[in-house]
Design a protein that fits this description.
By secondary structure, this protein is of the alpha+beta class. The chain has 10 helices and 5 strands. It has 2 domains: 102 residues, Orthogonal Bundle (Ribosomal Protein S4 Delta 41, Chain A, domain 1), CATH 1.10.1050.10; 86 residues, Structural Genomics Hypothetical 15.5 Kd Protein In mrcA-pckA Intergenic Region, Chain A. 40% of the residues lie in helices and 8% in strands.
Length: 211
């Protein structure tokens, strides 16, 4: 798990776009991109559009993806190594590794408002996968798996308040959720286009690691 020690909003400003690292704050006027949409540092406002080399562009795309999912450099490079060793499109396989992390699934379902909060919930053992307690954020969820919230955890004020708002939430195409309950099923493998959503360029990331 990647632990960010510095200001999280600086990462969004450096990337030049919202990475939704701070959850609900990212959707308000307090978001750093709304207030100061230029790179951090003394020269940030003066040099808001720095020129990047091909390597610099690839590096920035890798950093954006890594920060969006909240994984460490070692974890991210390991996902590439595993994806590259398998048959098929490396970019699609790597996206599946990232999207099928349990903490990301919880985030995509709307049960947590950020990846950091999802990791915290998973680490506290709030969820079950196919009836078994899982407290490892990087746990790989497979198509056909059912994710549920522990009955005791449903009584927490956060989850009691959140449940009514989930009825109108748009879920990713690869997941379904039972109406009025914390029970969801992964029905398919994630698609690269749906996961990326213009946040980062997966092709550039593959090129970065294939140098």
């Amino acid at each position: 798990m990647a632990k960010v020690l510095g200001p999280k909003c600086r990462m969004c400003r450096r990337a030049g776009m919202k990475l939704f690292i701070k959850g609900e704050r990212c959707y308000t006027t307090k978001c750093a991109i709304v207030r100061r949409n230029y790179p951090p540092g003394q020269a940030g406002a003066k040099n808001s559009k720095p020129r990047l080399t091909g390597y610099g562009i690839q590096l920035r795309e890798k950093q954006k993806a890594k920060q969006f999912y909240g994984v460490s450099e070692t974890q991210f490079s390991n996902y590439f190594s595993r994806a590259n060793s398998k048959e098929g499109n490396t970019a699609d396989i790597m996206i599946q590794f990232l999207e099928m992390r349990l903490d990301n699934v919880i985030y995509r379902l709307g049960w947590a408002n950020s990846h950091a909060q999802a990791r915290q919930f998973v680490g506290h053992g709030y969820f079950r996968v196919d009836g078994k307690k899982v407290n490892i954020p990087s746990f790989h969820v497979k198509p056909g798996s059912v994710i549920t919230l522990k009955p005791r955890s449903e009584k927490y004020s956060y989850f009691e308040t959140l449940l009514p708002s989930l009825s109108g939430k748009q879920l990713p195409s690869w997941a379904t959720m039972e109406q009025g309950a914390y029970s969801a099923k992964v029905v398919d493998a994630p698609k690269t286009e749906e996961a990326v959503q213009g946040i980062f360029d997966m092709k550039a990331i593959i090129e970065f690691y294939s140098r």
